[in-house]
Predict the structure of L-threonine 3-dehydrogenase, mitochondrial.
Amino acid sequence: KVLITGGLGQLGVGLAKLLRRRFGENNVILSDIRKPPNHVYHHGPFIFSDVLDYTSLRETVVNNNVSWLVHYAAVLSAVGENNVALAKEVNITGLHNVLDIATEHGLRLFVPSTIGAFGPSSPRDPTPDLCVQRPRTIYGVSKVHAELMGEYYHHRYGLDFRCLRYPGIISADSEPGGGTTDYAVQIFHAAVKSGLFECNLRSDTQLPMMYIDDCLRATLEFLEAPAETLLNRTYNIHAMSFTPHGLAQEIQRVLPDLKVTYNVDAVRQAIADGWPMALEDTAARRDWGWKHEYDLAELVQAVLAHVTTGNQLARAH
Ligand code: VAH
């Protein structure tokens, strides 16, 4: 069975859906500390589980015979800068709990890392798998810590630790939870609803991004890859890079009335300025066959189609 922590964030429900199609509805357990929306209760198991509560997390793993753990519970970059204590607690103490439990019970452990694990002194275009990592956010520091601890536990105790560095993920029916790349999700909703969008990053800020379907498929494929094919335990994955200006232009091809204004948030801008502009991901493509399907044009089409239908449904109710 698979347990997903932080299951009600931007990625959990979508990943559960994909994994349930593959492994059966009851074999994937979503967990979080929040109360889920009704549709989540109606599709497959959901349980309360707090990654900071070691005993209860362990109980969940044992009682449900969990064999894979996907650790999505985390405080993202912008929220973390506003609450360092919380980010430290969730991202570092929470990870320690998960690592110990995964090791003790022989689990396969997936932890997402991020472009945020790099910093201003990393090569930025493209950023290789192995290079200087001196991030300037608590989020980034905690993710480098997770990469290193996971790899250490792998070498020291044989833990089957697997880690992908995700770019900014663009989803249509789930909201991002306080990151620096959130604008690239919000712009779609604004474009469809009001035609006006105020962007909190500079128009020329280029960051790596990926459509959620590619991200979730990458996660499943990587989780299923035979251990002997994985020469690394932490891999960059890349799909596309764009700026707010470039994304707005692509959306305007479909919705020409979209107006974007810029009101830069200093905290987010400083974070983005130290992050990669593109990730180098040849190792992932070589070792376990990673291949993205969505470039910018396909991404915009897919997200606009979802957001427009969602909006029509909401209006019909
Ligand atoms: C953030 N979306 O902005 C996250 C992510 C790609 C960056 O880790 O904090």
Residues 76-77, 114-116, 139, 166-168, 176, 179-181 surround (3R)-3-hydroxy-L-norvaline (CB under 6 Å). The first strand starts at residue 2 and ends at 5. DSSP finds twelve helices and twelve strands in the chain.
